[in-house]
Specification:
The chain is mostly helical and 354 residues long. The chain has one domain. Helix content is 69%, strand content 2%. It has twelve helices and two strands. Helix 10 packs parallel to helix 12 and helix 11 runs antiparallel to helix 12.
Length: 354
C-alpha cells in the first residue's frame, strides 16, 4: 500500500506540475513542457533509485562509515554552495547541465541516518547531556546553521522538527524540551522579527488585506485559488489563478492549484493519500525488527508528512509563508529524488517489519 500510494502521488504530481506551469513555461521559455519535462525526468530518476534502494537491506546503513561519510559529504556541499554564484540572492543550489542540486534536501536524510544510528547506540541514555544530547545538538546546529545562512529558514525548521520528533519518541525528558523551547524562543524572534522580509511574511499572515497588492498579495491569491474551486473544482487545466496571478504556482503553492482545479474533493483525496502514507510509515516503524529500523522509518515518515503539513497549512493561510515544497508534487528535482530515495529505504524497512 505504501508503494502504491507513492506511485499515485508521483503521477499526480507530474500531472499537476504540467497544469500549473504550462502557461508560465510557454511565456518564459517558449515551451509549455519545460517544467513538466524536467519534473518527469526527476520522477523517472527518483523512481529508479527507489526501486534499487528498496532492495538494499537497510542494516547496511548502520555502519558508522556510511553515517558519518554522509554527514561529511552533506556538510561539504552546504559549505561549497557559498563559493558558487548566488541564485535569487540565495546560496541554495549547485547547478550543472541545466539541472540543480539542493544540498539542504540531502541534509534531512543524512540527519535521519545519524539520529537513527546514534539513538540506537545510546539506548536508555537519551537524557545524558554530555554523552548523547551535546553530540546531537552539535550536528543539528551545524546542519541547521549552514542552511540558515543560505538563507533557508523553512528547511532548517524541518530539520529541527525531525530531530525533535525522534528525540521525543526516544524518551527525551520534558525538562530538556522546556529548556530547548526557552533557548529557541529569542533565537527565532531575532531570525523572524529582526529580518525584514520574514517580518513582512508574519504581518502578511496576520492581515494580508492590509497590503493586498504588496506583502499580502501571494496569500490572498492562494486563498482565492482554493476558494474558487468549490466542491468539485473548475476542472484539470482550467484554473485561472495560475495565469500570472498566483506566484510560485508550480512550486510551493501547487496545492492551491489542486484546490482550484479539483476542488474540495481533490484536496481531500490528496490529504487521504498523505494520511495513508503516514499510517503505513508508522506501521513500518513500529514493526521494525530493531531500533535502527524504527528510528529510520519514523524519521523518513516524519520528514515527508511534516513537510506536507507545513506546505498545505501555508497555502490555506494557517501558517506564515515559508519556502517548503509539497512532497512528490511541487516542482523541484532535488526534493523529488531525495524523497523517493527515502521512500525506498522506508519500503525496505516495511518489508522486514513484523
Amino acid at each position: 500500500m505504501l508503494f502504491l500510494v507513492t506511485l499515485i502521488l508521483v503521477g499526480f504530481g507530474v500531472a499537476m506540475v504540467f497544469s500549473s506551469s504550462a502557461i508560465i513555461a510557454k511565456e518564459r521559455f517558449g515551451d509549455p513542457n519545460y517544467f513538466s519535462f524536467k519534473q518527469l525526468i526527476s520522477a523517472a530518476l527518483g523512481l529508479a533509485i527507489m526501486f534499487v534502494v528498496m532492495k538494499i537491506d537497510y542494516h547496511k546503513y548502520r555502519h558508522p562509515v556510511i553515517v558519518f561519510s554522509a554527514l561529511a559529504i552533506v556538510v561539504a556541499l552546504l559549505v561549497g554552495v557559498f563559493f558558487l554564484a548566488a541564485s535569487a540572492n540565495t546560496h541554495r543550489w549547485i547547478q550543472f547541465w541545466g539541472f540543480s542540486v539542493q544540498p539542504s534536501e540531502m541534509a534531512k536524510l543524512a540527519l535521519i541516518f545519524f539520529l537513527a544510528y546514534f539513538l540506537e547506540k545510546r539506548k536508555g541514555k537519551v537524557n545524558d547531556l554530555p554523552f548523547t544530547l551535546v553530540p546531537i545538538a552539535i550536528i543539528v546546529a551545524l546542519l541547521a546553521g549552514l542552511i540558515l545562512l543560505q538563507p533557508d529558514l523553512g528547511t532548517a525548521v524541518s530539520l529541527l522538527a525531525i530531530g525533535a520528533v525522534l528525540l521525543f519518541v526516544a524518551g527525551l525528558d520534558l525538562r530538556w524540551i522546556a529548556a530547548s523551547v526557552i533557548f529557541a524562543a529569542p533565537v527565532f524572534y531575532l531570525l523572524i522579527f529582526r529580518v525584514r522580509y520574514r517580518r513582512e511574511r508574519i504581518l502578511a499572515f496576520l492581515n494580508p488585506w492590509e497590503e493586498p497588492l504588496g506583502r499580502g498579495f501571494q496569500m490572498i491569491q492562494s486563498l482565492l485559488s482554493v476558494a474558487s474551486g468549490g466542491i468539485t473544482g473548475l476542472g484539470f487545466m482550467e484554473g485561472k489563478q495560475k495565469l500570472f496571478y498566483l506566484p510560485e504556482a508550480h512550486t510551493d503553492f501547487i496545492f492551491a492549484v489542486v484546490g482550484e482545479e479539483l476542488g474540495l474533493i481533490g484536496t481531500c483525496i490528496l490529504l487521504g493519500l498523505f494520511a495513508v502514507f503516514f499510517w503505513r510509515g508508522l506501521r513500518a516503524s513500529m514493526g521494525a525488527p530493531d531500533l535502527f529500523g524504527f528510528y529510520l522509518a519514523l524519521g523518513i515518515t516524519t520528514m515527508v508528512c511534516v513537510q506536507a503539513f507545513f506546505n498545505m497549512s501555508v497555502v490555506l493561510g494557517l501558517l506564515p509563508t515559508k519556502g517548503i515544497p509539497l512532497p512528490f508534487l511541487s516542482y523541484g528535482g532535488s526534493s523529488f529524488v531525495v524523497m523517493l530515495a527515502s521512500v525506498g529505504i522506508l519500503l525496505n524497512v516495511s518489508q522486514q517489519s513484523s
